């Protein structure tokens, strides 16, 4: 009987964890979708899963390669939610790709920003016509 109760508790814990993970994933995905209104979007990640946690950063850039908006998801638990990353706004992609410090960002957020900037800059270089900031009236890429 004790084994059944223990197994039931483990299964219930896994179901609760899966539920909170789903909520966290949906919240970050919705925040990234919202960033698309501000320009081309890329997501970067950094850190270790069990040593200090992982940080995910999503950035949106305008046609000139400046960050228009950025969000960060960092925390030890599935209760963490995306937060605005105001220190990155207004910074250009080449500076994000370099090792220059940006305000008081922690090293994981800085590395995640670098990863997102590298991804975005490589895509912008290959397909510049696809990643223009949307026209605010039509919400379609400007030409």
Detailed description of the structure:
It contains three helices and four strands; from the N terminus they run αββββαα. It is elongated, with a radius of gyration of 18 Å. A four-stranded antiparallel β-sheet has the order 1-2-3-4. The mean pLDDT is 82. The chain has 143 residues and is α+β, with helices and mostly antiparallel strands.
In angstroms, what is the radius of gyration? 18 Å
Average of the residue pLDDT scores = 82
Strand order of the largest sheet: 1-2-3-4
Strand content: 15-25%
Largest sheet: 4 strands, antiparallel
Determine the N-to-C terminus distance: 68 Å
Uncertain segments are none
**How many helices does DSSP assign?**
3
Describe the global form: elongated
Helix/strand order: HEEEEHH
Percent helix range: 40-55%
